[in-house]
Amino acid sequence: LVKVVVYVPCAHTGQVRQALYDAGAGSIGNYDCCSYVMRGEGSFRPGEEAHPYCGEAGQIHHEPEDRVEVILPRYKLGKVLQAMLVAHPYEEPAYDIIPLDNEWRAAGSGVIGNLPQECDAVDFLAQLKQIMGCDNIRYTAPCRPTIKRIALCGGAGGFLADAAYRCNAHLFVTGEMGGFHHFHEYAGKLMVAEIGHYESEKHTKEIFYDVIRKKFSTFAIHLSKVETNPIKYL
């Protein structure tokens, strides 16, 4: 996360703040349009070639201004700054970009969600095996007749099994748990399925392909067909 702080003449605070919101800034958990505003006074002296919104060239000017603060995920920074600069009346807006140590709770290593309908756990794994192209799936006994709430983490996701259990998941799917003892730990509490480290991540190339193609429409992209899985099955 980062914080953007911008100083705005008071009459334009509303439009600049709305532009920040519209560009994706100011969301905290289940709340949006979050900001902080503090009134103060800014000073500046326009140069001879400046075209100031207020004040005169060569004269120190004092202007009532609002300090507007918003937070946002770093990947949205470019879009937010562009929107702010368009909405701001000043020729040279003063703003700060402050890195934050706060965690962004909307993103993490895994996902959790509900199936449209409950289904048999083994039937679900059979379908998952076909979709993911797995040679086999290792799994623990189901803890209930049917499942609906699924947690997923690609790769070595054993460290998230406890989080999946706390989120009331019926099944936790990951590439590898990281040790046989982890299967025992959740026996009777959470069904765990291990589909293979490579198998759980191999489809990310299609995700990257789509993202790059949308952002760079003239960039030639090719999906590799090289098999890089070091693990073989009999």
TrEMBL record:
InterPro entries the UniProt entry points to: DUF34/NIF3, DUF34/NIF3_sf, N-reg_PII/ATP_PRibTrfase_C
GO molecular function, one term: metal ion binding
Keywords: Metal-binding
Metal-binding among keywords: yes
Pfam families listed in its UniProt record: DUF34_NIF3 (PF01784)
Ligand binding (a divalent metal cation): H197, E201
UniProt key word Metal-binding: yes
Entry's family note: Belongs to the GTP cyclohydrolase I type 2/NIF3 family.
Protein name per the record: Nif3-like dinuclear metal center hexameric protein
